[in-house]
Amino acid sequence: LAGQVRFGPDVQWLPSEAPDGAPAPDEAAYGGCTEATAALYGVDVRRAEGFYEAVRRYWPGLPDGSLAADYSGIRAKLSAPGEPASDFVVAAHRPGPRVPSSVVSLFGIESPGLTSSLSLADQVLRRLGETPE
Known about the structure:
This protein is mainly alpha-helical. Helix content is about 25%, strand content about 5%. It is extended, with a radius of gyration of 19 Å.
């Protein structure tokens, strides 16, 4: 990682509308983004202390001021706040005028998604009617 170390990600649930009453972030992506909704995508530096506490559980010597926010984004979630994590969803779509037969959607691929990636690939191949090797 170019001499860097990465920690995270964490989850911050977003409100359904921005402080100025603008649409929810997912709706804003389709209808334009106001300054207030753009602020929802940013990294709140006040959350840094929680990161220091978490990382120092296994790296006690982490110097103050050494962490820097990298990026933020919106990740679709299958479970609401406080609910247990949902399992992965692998959905093959029925062919139609707007959906070719080769569309398979994968939802809720969070940790341990990387560990499960080969099994998920086998599932996709089966849904496409192909045999995994």
